[in-house]
Amino acid sequence: xxxxxxxxxxxxxxxxxxxxxxxxxxxxxxxxxxxxxxxxxxxxxxxxxxxxxxxxxxxxxxxxxxxxxxxxxxxxxxxxxxxxxxxxxxxxxxxxxxxxxxxxxxxxxxxxxxxxxxxxxxxxxxxxxxxxxxxxxxxxxxxxxxxxxxxxxxxxxxxxxxxxxxxxxxxxxxxxxxxxxxxxxxxxxxxxxxxxxxxxxxxxxxxxxxxx
Length: 212
Fold this sequence. Notes:
By secondary structure, this protein is of the alpha+beta class. The protein has helices at about 15-25, 35-40, 100-115, 125-130, 135-140, 180-185, 200-210, and strands spanning about 5, 55, 60-75, 80-90, 120, 135, 140, 150-155, 165-170. It has 7 helices and 9 strands, in the order E-H-H-E-E-E-H-E-H-E-H-E-E-E-H-H. The strands form 2 sheets. Strands 1, 2, 3, 4, 7 and 9 form a 6-stranded mixed β-sheet that branches. A 3-stranded antiparallel β-sheet has the order 5-8-6.
């Protein structure tokens, strides 16, 4: 299978939003909000358009990755800009076939070239350890409340950058939005059934787990 990675263009936006909805529908909650996030992310000040890429197979978009600025602040008040990706989308029919890996590895090299010391994400460790991500606890990077969520994952692009300090991750405000706006936006898409499924319970356990 030949996976082609290329920059996202404005013409790709509708297809990427449909892809995002297909990827996340009923996965983490009944329905999803990730396609609305993608929609508003591109006009946000923290969006990093040079790191927006799609994956194609035979001319069909099967994957997408988008980045925003994030920041880490240490106990001295020193603030450093970092990068965060998400949503990372792979169409359900193409998952576990190397599409996500291709998107991560391609953009990881670009993030490093642009001088960012680290990529920080909130995700399932099972999906990202293979790419070099470590739990924030191992590097002294926690959430704003001082805890170390299991899903707070850090990829050091500048070895030793986090050493000797305690850090807190600040993500972009683009991730904070009114759920009512999601429902209004979703009405633009073909109706789909919202339902509960086991993956949602697993996600709930993950986001409430902390590393001691």
